[in-house]
Amino acid sequence: MNARSSPLSGIRVLDLSRVLAGPWCTQNLADLGADVIKVERPGAGDDTRRWGPPFLKDTDGHDSQEAAYYLSTNRNKRSITIDIATQEGAELVRRMAAKCDVLVENFKVGGLKKYGLDYDSIQAVNPALIYCSITGFGQTGPLAPLAGYDFMIQGMGGLMSITGERDGQPGGGPQKAGVAVSDVMTGMYATVAILGALHERHRSGLGQHIDMALLDSHVAMLANQNLNYMTTGQPPARAGNAHQNIVPYKVFAASDGHLIVAVGNDTQFRAYCEVIGRPDLADHPDYCTNSQRLAHRETLISLLEHIMLQRPRDEWISALQQASVPSGPINNLDQVFDNQQVKHRQVWQNLPHPLAGEVPTVASPMRFSDTPVQYRMPPPLLGEHTDEILRELGLADDSPD
What we know:
Oligomer: single chain
Strand order of the largest sheet: 5-2-1-6-7-8
CATH class of the largest domain: Alpha Beta
Distance between the termini: 45 Å
Mean pLDDT: 95
Helix content: 25-40%
Strand content: 15-25%
Number of domains: 2
Number of strands: 13
Shape: elongated
Largest sheet: 6 strands, parallel
Radius of gyration: 25 Å
């Protein structure tokens, strides 16, 4: 039997995005087999190419011009340099868009209209094109003209009001996440939206405009915290490492370190109580149900904290896992990539690279039984594929160089 092709084999994506949200989306599409053509500014390229150190070391051990940030989100793509601010460059992008299935851009609202590269202009030459715009606040509304950055969106979108230690506690106050989650989640939602539009196109034969906003995506991802507020009218507060709705579900100090205990139901609480040598707590009227444990959180947690200090971290984790109580360590990234499960899943991948010999990349979490993600290409050098792409599209005579 012939091997099945990748899920998006035959789909061509024109990537006019930069930094994180857009490139995260297009890397997903590239991992799924799409041919992603990354359009970059001549001589400069994606802003993140310079967001270092750290930079990738070349074969002589010297810093290259490829920042680790850029490398994290641009594998499996090809790079072409075009100055879209020139009439010739804009026309070349239009002609490329006519031969593509998807276009992704993250310019300010209206930013591409002056070049004739906005949705209406491109849709006129390719009605089947799926055109995805990613902005801070969307294409409509009072804030639409403003630039949006992950940090400010984490604040405006409510995440920082529920992240960090409780007010009045040491270190209390608003805290951003350690990763640009607004950008990453917007990239993920954009990926889903594009896949949905591609599926719909099989029926209608037509493309459409997808309007993705960091703020929309950020608010949407707050999940249960949104409904905690929407059903009560009370905004949830920061709870540190505790959970707003479940007890005990937090970080505990052991005799030699810290561990996470995540008791998700009453059966797990009973098993937890057996492990810690206090089976009576599972039948106590103040603690026998999660609702009661929430109502008596402070008393219960104070008692459990004293107990958890009595044994070493790994001893607790081993005993709790054997009892099917969710628990685990708090690892740094060195420990993450040394973890046996992470090694088994081959999360660390290496790709050949023209400057460094090879470059590390993190495996896609999308695991297919019959059409696996293929790590075909490292993040491209600036303009590395310009001539190749123009020849393939029959546009070689229009090279901007």
